[in-house]
Known about the structure:
The chain is an alpha/beta fold.
Amino acid sequence: MVNTLPAQQSQSQQSQPEKILRLPSDQDSSGRTLGAEEIAFLTAAIQSGTLTSTKGTYVKALEKQFAELLGVKYVYACNSGSAAVHTAIAAVDPEPGDEIITTSITDMGALTPILYQGAIPRFVDVDPATWNVTAETIAACITPRTKAIIVTHLFGNPCDMTEIMALANQHGIPVIEDSAQAFLAQHDGQYTGTMGSIGCFSFQQGKHITTGEGGLVTTNDEALARRMFLYINKAFGYGDPKPDHYFIALNYRMSELQGAVAAAQLPKLAGIVERRRATANQMTAKLQGLAGVTPPYHDPRNQPVYWKYCLRVDGQVIADGAVGLAKKLKEERGIFSAPRYIQKPAFQCEVFEQQRTFGNSRWPFTLATPEAVDYSPALFPGTFTGLEQVLVLPWNEAYTAEHIDYIADAVHQAVTQLS
C-alpha cells in the first residue's frame, strides 16, 4: 500500500498563506532607539525643576554637540521641523511678494512658513529618478524676485549640491537645506545642512532620531545666526545690554524635556545611520535585476542615509504599477508601503490652488506674478512621473537580515504575480 500522506501534507502546506512577519516600526518602540539613556536624562531634567531652555542646560548642550558633529559654527534648537524652516525663511527676511524656490514634492510644514513670511512659493520640477530638485529645474525659475532657494534632500538622498551651489552663488541667492530626512547624509564629503547658508533638521517621530517633535537650524553665517536666535525667542535679545523685542517673531523654543531626549539620542545617530545603510545595501543587492522595479538611484558622490527605501515601479511591466505592488505587499505579507509618497504635488493642495490664506484676502498671493502661480502639469513632468512610479517602503534601524529577506522575498513574489 502506498502512503500518500507526505504528498498530501506538502499540498496542504503549499496552500497555506505565507507567514506574516511583523516588521519593526518607527511609530513605536520596536523601531526606535529610545531607552534607558533618554529616561535618565529626562529624570534629571525633571528633578532639576528647570524645563525652559532659556535657563536649562540640555538644549544648550544639544546645540553645542550638534555643531561639533557637523562642524558648523552655530546651531539653535526649536520645537519642530516646520519651525526650523520658518526660522530659516525669517532669517533671510523676504519682502512681501518675494519668491522662494522650493520643491513640488515636500511636506506642507516646509511650505506654509513661506506664506507666513509674506513670500510666494515658486515650485520647481524634480528629477523623477531621485525626486529631488536639480540646478537645471531651479535655473528655469530664478527671477529678479527670487529671495532664496530651498532644497529638500528627499528620503535622505542629497541633492546635487555642487551644481546647485554654483548656480546660487552665481546669482547671489542664499540656499536653505531642508535636511529633515537627511541626518548625516553627505554629498562629495560634506554633510547636508552645511553646504548652503542655512540647514534645517527635524526630530519628528519618524526621523532618524526623535523627540516626538523638535528641530534644529544650522549656519556658519554670524548675521543669519543672530537673526535665527532672535526669531526662535520672540525677537527678544537675551544677553543684550538693553534687550528688547526687535521685530515680529514667534516663540519656537525647544523645551528642556525635548532637549534631554535629543541629547540622549544624538550619540546614537551614527550607529543608526550605519545600520540603515547596511540593510539598504542588502536590499538593493536582493532586488537588482528584478524586472519592473528599480532600487534607489544615488549619485556616486552621495552617501545617503535612507530615511525610507524607495523603489521606482514601471507600470508598463507591473500591473497597476506602484499602487498594485503596494496592495499585494499589504494583502499577501502585511507590509505597509506608500505608493506615490504624497498623493498629489504640493501645489495641487487647496491652500495653493484656492489661495486660502488669511481670511478672504488671498495675501500674499495677491502680490504674485502669473508665472509664480502657474501650476500647469506640463511644467512638472518629472514630478508627475516621479510620484506615479515611487513606492516608499518603511525603513528603520531595527531591521535585521531576516526583515530584509522577508521584504525582498515579498517584493519578488508580488512582482511575479503582477507581471
